[in-house]
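dude i think i finally got it to work??
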Amino acid sequence: MDNAGLLEELQQKLEAAYKTLPLATQKTDIVHGEGDSRAKIMCIGEAPGREEALQRRPFVGRSGKLLRKVLEEVGLPPAKVFISNIVKVRPPENRDPTPIEIAAYRPYLNQELEILKPEIIVTLGRFSMAKFLPEVKISAVHGRLHKVQWEGVDIFVLPMYHPAAALRSSRMMESFIADFKKIPKILTWIKEQRGTESLKQGIKEILF
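look at this
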């Protein structure tokens, strides 16, 4: 089965389990990840908001429009990226997801990652960043590429501010746009370094 089929199967599995999941009261509460099933870039946010819950699509509200606009501007059409969240159902009043909620949806996000095997994981905000880099502050590491061990595999994680934070602060907006502009260069660097000893050994943080 190809990636598209595997993702569809995963979505069906998630909907079938909705009664066992926090926040979900019906199948249609679930907002699945979307995008290219062969994407090199996966963006992971926090949880759906009001507009996302209504449309059943991730990042389509005000912050989502910013995310998609910036992706286009740096030459990464949103349709060629995979966009998801650590929690698949909107928390009441858009509050922060709880550790229990994050843990409940973790297996489904993990399976998305296993199917896609993206070259870069872009974490949007502190909650998705904490999945891979739990001991750091986003203000200190945003826009810096990290190689981390996840499930026994080396992966590249690029922490970024959440677009909602960028909308609240002109300083964060500047950082948000500047960090996204690094992605094409990072993809080129990964392609050039693939298979080399420098990529295999000891690199933990790469500055661009």
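The radius of gyration is 16 Å.
im so relieved honestly
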